[in-house]
Amino acid sequence: QVQLVESGGGLVKPGGSLRLSCAASGFTFSDYYMSWIRQAPGKGLEWISYISHSSSTIYYADSVKGRFTISRDNAKKSLYLQMNSLRAEDTAVYFCARDQGISDYWGQGTLVTVSS
Amino acid sequence: DIQMTQSPSSLSASVGDRVTITCRSSQSISISLNWYQQKPGTAPKLLIYAASNLQSGVPSRFSGSGSGTDFTLTISSLQPEDFATYYCQQSYSTRTFGQGTKVEIK
Known about the structure:
By secondary structure, chain A is an all-beta fold. Chain A contains no helices and 11 strands.
């Protein structure tokens, strides 16, 4: 069965960095685009980035462009999100999702809290 | 960037009611529109893809329609397990979610 498991969340100070990981299983990871989506406490969903099968196509939302970097390792079946220059407004649950134009499988999310 | 606007932001309904949620895009997105359901503390669940296609395992009381800029999610007879927040998402150009519609018990 398809599984996506995020890790790497935690408490970080403003201006700090964090790297999130998403471990995939149960499907051919290298066949799919992957996305990161976040949800601030009590707020709606915000798509923040996606990456193509071979990493040749990458897009970011304006809110994270220049600060966040998405990457993947198909051999390790893993997706990553490097988050730099973190701000209080980046506090959210971060989800990874399989993306084929639709996000049909999601991880359980990992909480990132940016606070001094 | 394509903006997505859902209405209403929230609604109160009773079990058995017919519920309709609308989603409007800032430009034409053909049928590149998906609907998700989210319950508190859990990841979103895909309900409808490509505007009107029911995801496998989703009850037939859920349906979607529309194309271009105007889309609708309909629940034909609301069940207790349907009280949740619903989001539309466009996949025509990158991705954008609507702000969500919370369906509460009347």
